[in-house]
Amino acid sequence: MNLYLVQHGIPKPEEEDPERPLSDAGREEVQRVTECLRKAGIGVTQVFHSGKLRAKQTAEIFGEALKPAKDVSETDGLKPLDDPKIWAERLESINEDTMLVGHLPHMQRLASLLLCGDSERRVVSFRMGGVVCLGRDDEGWSLKWAVTPDII
After folding, report:
1. What is the CATH topology of the domain spanning 2-151?
2. pTM exceeding the 0.90 threshold for the entire prediction
């Protein structure tokens, strides 16, 4: 199983729009990353997002390009300060390639918890609009790759 952890794209400043939708630059960067994944043949069965507008918009862009078998949907446990154990436990029963679109520090804490068992150790650095791919096999979780808008 592959798990794709995505930090939402760059949002508009709160002063400009309190809902903080994706900025034009954020939308463009997410589309570039999404196109890279699509060309590489990456597919997912499901895409979940936190429900915050910037995460929802990011998830929808990925969903349009990657065509998950199940809908792009909002879920709990992906907000910035949510406990990463929520999703670590849920993932134990998921065997399909899944994408989670959320926020820092949650994404970073979840990756650390899965990779080394300690959510407080920073194991992976995230970038807005970037994707970190973790793989799970019989031996547990491992980092497979990461892609950020800067390198595309």
Report:
1. Rossmann fold (3.40.50)
2. yes
